[in-house]
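Justification of computing resources. Each target in the renewal requires a structure prediction run like the one illustrated here; the chain below, 494 residues long, is used simply to show the kind of job we budget for.
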Amino acid sequence: MKFGNSFDIVKNVPDLATLGRRIRHYRTAAGLTLDELGRDVDVAQSQLSLIENGRREPRLTLLTAIAARLGVTVGELLDASPPSPRAAMEIELERAQVGASYRELGLPEVRPSRGMPDDVLRALVGLHREIDRRARLAIATPEEARRANTRQRLRMQRMDNYLPEIERLAQDDVGAVGHTGGALTHRTVSLMAERIGLSIVHVADLPHSARCVLDLESGRIYIPPASIPGGHGLRSLALQAMAHVRLGHGEPVDYEDFLRQRQDASYYAAACLMPRDPAVAFLERAKQERDIAIEDFRDAFGVTHEAAALRFTNLATASLGIRLHFLRVAGDGAVVRAYENDGLPLPVDATRSTEGQIVCRHWSARMAFARSTRTTEYYQYTDTPVGTFFEATQTGTTEAEEFSITLGVPYQESRWFRGRESTQRAASRCPDLSCCRRPQGDVAERWAGRAWASARVHAHIFSPLPQGTYPGVDDRELYDFLESHAADGDRPAD
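Resulting structure tokens:
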């Protein structure tokens, strides 16, 4: 059976609350009391009550007996939709009261009894929706985002940035469509999507806050047009959307859950584009030849330099025994993304977050910007308070800014890498402010009170994330997009 078929089956199975409501609905319609139905199917009335209240899962044999007595099919009992609008509100209220947002209030649980008027039930459900909405506003604050991002980075550091279960899943999925080696083509990605009941559709009107959209109802993955510059990244977008299905993701419960899902989806995509076995074989050969180079790894699998460097961080420690660090740094020196398990003293704030912090001017990540020729990697040894590191940096430019991608290792590991013969060497004393932050005393005295600079305003500092189900994505824009494409004839990607 194709995974897509099994996914459809799982998607349509009700939870216990819905199953219990459906049993109660059909029992009431049949004019039976709990005691009468329990007697007819040979189960205690108390046990049947637990089933109807969603507190116990019935055995299949019991479910079959109940269906036969009520004159319905087992399939009708297992339908995933609530049996009535009233039941839908009752289920929503029960789910809301077991959520973290409500439990934190310390208030008692309110059971939606049969005697509760519909307007009271509707008001309670409305209040819980507002509590949930306000909780989502809180998780979108920059402060919480930074703390959650730090926890995620430290989690991956503890695991050496390696997730074996996702590695196995990705390798199985790539192998299942007949891919044996080389760069993963758009066609292969489309076959992988078809295998789980999805099709890839290129659209030009994606919500500005979303890179891609997965519509489970229609089985479509919406991604940008194939003709956009750097369209090779579209394979990764489609694979990340597929990952949410393959990994069983639901709506994130908080920002940390959202980050974990995004991290795992990105990991799955990278593990598909650069499957573990051929990638490790390639890197082991390069290590034996003492010629590891991210640019070669990049070209062998047809990915971006950043994607190759990040994938190397997944495999280097687990498969090659090499500890390392990775940095993406903006042109102004601010950290965009970072990972290390080699002790590099990353700049951090009070929350231990490194994103947004300024790296030392003497690190390779910033020294590389000073080169007039940037077509090749820049190699440098950097002395720090905790030891010397060898780093290879590639610079690049987007429409918005320039950036650098750095892959570095402790000095003793440099023997495996291309560029180790570099004579470029710099010394960094950061986080000592006298290293590159604090101006020299005589220079500061010379210009104190004699100059004024107008700072470049970083608008993102004042802009909260769009507040929606998925942090950073505008719900109104997203749902309008889905509605506009729900019934159209979008053509799947070739």
